[in-house]
Amino acid sequence: MKECPHVPALPRPEPEPQANTCRECLALGSHPVQLRICLECGHVGCCDSSTYRHSTRHFEETGHAVMRSFEPGEDWRWCYVDLLIV
Fold this sequence. Notes:
The longest helix is centred in the C-terminal third of the chain and has 9 residues, at 54-62. A five-stranded antiparallel sheet has the order 2-1-3-4-5. It is built from two helices and five strands. It is of the alpha+beta class. It has helices spanning 23-28, 54-62; strands spanning 35-38, 44-46, 66-69, 77-79, 84-85. Helices cover 17% and strands 19% of the residues.
């Protein structure tokens, strides 16, 4: 996997998840599809296949560039700024 300049700046260890699911979807009565965790603050949101795209919205609102899949058995990460799997 490629590195981007945002990865070395991430907190170590990873932040604790703020929730076990997408709280924004729950509040709206929507079902989240594929969860993602922000590797800067621990926000858990739904992916772009979900109706509301809360992980992408979190990036747009905060500038937190790198997220990781929050699905069991998956550990890939995505940088929204560089548009790379990192």
